[in-house]
Structure prediction request, 212 residues.
Amino acid sequence: MLHKPLSLACAPLIRAALLSAALVHLPALPALANPQAIAPGEQVLAEKERITAFQAGVAAYDAGDYTRAYEIWLPLAKLGDLAAQRNVGHLLRLGRGTAQDLPRALYFYERAADAGLNAAALNAGTLLLGAEGIERDTEDAAGYFMQAAQDGYPEALYQLALLTEAGDGTGKDPAKADRLMRLAAFLGHEKARARIGLETRLDEVRAPSNAG
Prediction:
């Protein structure tokens, strides 16, 4: 499906959350690399053509023709279309319409994330936690989760809370980790909710002995 972030039901599992991550469809595409070299009217025409092409990719994806969607989106991704970059990363990660290639998927996710697409930052951060064929890099992962957290992605908040709690890839800060975990739980992250609930029950059990 399009337009939706992560399925909350799948959010507790990293791979499942990624499998349920939706394609991003942006109504506007980025400017061409050298707009000064093209007349304004030609820029508008080129932009319309690119939007039309992107929509054709969406239609192909919805019809289950992933190969065609990949063929349409890949050139757009190489031109710098952020939505196409994330969509290509999605297809590469799942092996839909092309051979599965997680390192290459990460490449496209990172390009989109570094250009400001926060949904792609969540995907990049998750792969950097140690997906097959990708070296674990918790420092970069934490940075991407921090970026995705700006859009309120519960999975990003949850993963950032875990890293912050452990001081893995970011400064250790139990109080901040607790705030992040509680926010993820508030936004519906089931694993965060379970963790907060468990901590609350443990506090209740400890309370009598502490009081006595």
Notes: The radius of gyration is 20 Å. The chain has one domain: 8-211.
